[in-house]
Design brief:
4 helices, single chain, four-stranded antiparallel sheet, alpha+beta
Length: 185
């Protein structure tokens, strides 16, 4: 077994940690209208809970408004209820077979709360990355003790592993920095 195989095996998990952080942060309200605010909210549709993005087209009308165009009029009530339940603070205006979502400006108190959520998300993602790094490093050390990985390859593996972790931590930092700038802007 090569140390490269061990390192390669954790990369999908690191990617999932970054994707999770990105999706969680995208759904945070920043005072600016974006489809990510509502697209993953699950609405009741004929007894099934489906994300709004599967039930309607979501577009940005202006910096403060979204337009939701359900594929079928029967989805409107479920979508409205889901948004009111999951995205407090957004106001809805039914307009024919469409729904207009108004995004109010953020209060300073909400801004501070959201910055805390961003920090918690960053911390959680980085903990996940550290966990997989530690597991991979333990496996490399164990395979070295078993004689399956040479001693000098063990240290090459440690360096490569740290490079990979740094790459994913940098991705998390970039996502977090963008969201913080949105929240403060």
């Amino acid at each position: 077994m090569l140390y490269e195989d061990i390192i390669k095996s954790i990369e999908p998990e690191l990617e999932k940690a970054v994707d999770f952080a990105q999706k969680k942060l995208a759904s945070l309200r920043t005072g600016r209208a974006t489809p990510a605010l509502v697209e993953d909210i699950k609405a009741d549709c004929f007894g099934q809970m489906l994300p709004i993005k599967q039930l309607a087209a979501i577009s940005v009308l202006s910096a403060k408004q979204l337009l939701i165009q359900p594929w079928d009029k029967s989805y409107i009530e479920g979508i409205e209820q889901a948004i009111m339940r999951e995205a407090s603070g957004l106001s809805l205006i039914p307009e024919g077979s469409n729904i207009i979502v108004n995004v109010p400006p953020m209060s300073e108190e909400l801004r501070k709360e959201l910055i805390k959520v961003v920090a918690q998300t960053e911390d959680g993602a980085k903990k996940t990355i550290r966990k997989f790094r530690d597991e991979a490093w333990s496996e490399i050390q164990e395979k070295t003790r078993e004689g399956l990985i040479r001693e000098d390859d063990k240290y090459k593996g440690k360096d490569k592993l740290q490079e990979l972790v740094d790459k994913y931590n940098k991705k998390i930092d970039e996502i977090v920095d963008r969201k913080k700038a949105e929240l403060q802007g």
